[in-house]
């Protein structure tokens, strides 16, 4: 299925156990390609500038093993900038590469998610869930990230007013900037000392570089939150 790239401003994907690939390609329209998935198993719809892709709630998806072969591939023309992208991942694999959007919201579920060379200009909201979520070579403005039982790792640029909270799992932030660029506000449990900045454990309340250009609020309970800067 093909959709006019100029008519689509927002993308919403709700998957259960099938994989999703969102990739920039040298194409003229937004293309949705189903691999080993019957057309009646997924609903693809465009309305008011929103392209929605979701698994049908008939229970048949859960009878299939998650083997990586059942995939919805979304090809996006080069230079396309979305107003918003919302992704809900179940047991499958999500891969997003070379995509630009103003807003991004992700619910990682229990599967595996990979974002590579993704640019978000206004706001990012991430719930990593039980699975594994990785972000590589990306640029996020105003990041709001919440880690559950699983793991979340980020490598790239973080700007604006950001807040990262670690639950029981593990979060690693490899930020392509210097410590002095961030007003860092940390709140860590004295018992668990879950926040580590450039190899230094942070206990209780912590604040540094009050007048910096960007703000990074960090909080951790039982889990571990590691932050590394390019000092």
Output the keywords.
61% strand, 231 residues, single chain, mainly beta, 23-stranded mixed sheet, 23 strands, 0% helix
Give the SSE map:
Blueprint: E1 2-3, E2 10-14, E3 19-25, E4 30-35, E5 42-47, E6 50-55, E7 71-77, E8 81-88, E9 93-97, E10 100-107, E11 112-116, E12 119-127, E13 132-141, E14 143-147, E15 151-159, E16 161-166, E17 170-175, E18 182-188, E19 195-197, E20 200-202, E21 204-208, E22 214-220, E23 224-228
Parallel strand pairs: 2-6, 2-8, 3-7, 3-9, 8-10, 9-11, 10-12, 11-13, 12-13, 12-14, 13-15, 14-16, 15-17, 16-22, 17-23, 18-22, 19-23
Antiparallel strand pairs: 1-4, 4-7, 5-6, 18-21, 19-20
Describe the structure concisely for a colleague.
The chain is built from no helices and 23 strands. It is an all-beta fold.
């Amino acid at each position: 299925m093909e959709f006019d790239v100029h008519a689509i401003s927002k993308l919403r994907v709700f998957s259960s156990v099938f994989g999703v690939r969102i990739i920039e390609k040298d194409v003229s329209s937004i293309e949705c390609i189903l691999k080993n998935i019957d057309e009646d198993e997924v609903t693809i719809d465009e309305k008011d500038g929103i392209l929605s892709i979701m698994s049908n709630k008939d229970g048949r998806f859960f009878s299939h093993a998650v083997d990586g072969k059942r995939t919805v591939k979304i090809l996006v023309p080069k230079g396309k900038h979305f107003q918003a992208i919302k992704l809900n991942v179940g047991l499958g694999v999500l891969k997003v590469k070379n995509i630009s959007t103003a807003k991004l919201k992700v619910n990682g579920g229990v599967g595996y998610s990979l974002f590579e060379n993704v640019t978000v200009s206004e706001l990012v909201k991430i719930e990593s869930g039980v699975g594994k979520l990785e972000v590589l070579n990306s640029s996020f403005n105003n990041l709001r990230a919440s880690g559950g039982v699983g793991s979340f790792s980020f490598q790239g640029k973080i700007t604006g007013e950001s807040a990262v909270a670690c639950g029981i799992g593990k979060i690693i932030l490899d930020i392509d900037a210097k410590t002095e660029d961030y007003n860092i506000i940390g709140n860590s449990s004295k018992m668990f000392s879950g926040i580590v900045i450039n190899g230094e454990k942070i206990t209780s309340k912590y604040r540094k570089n009050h007048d910096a250009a960007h703000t990074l609020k960090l909080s951790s309970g039982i889990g571990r939150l590691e932050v590394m800067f390019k000092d």
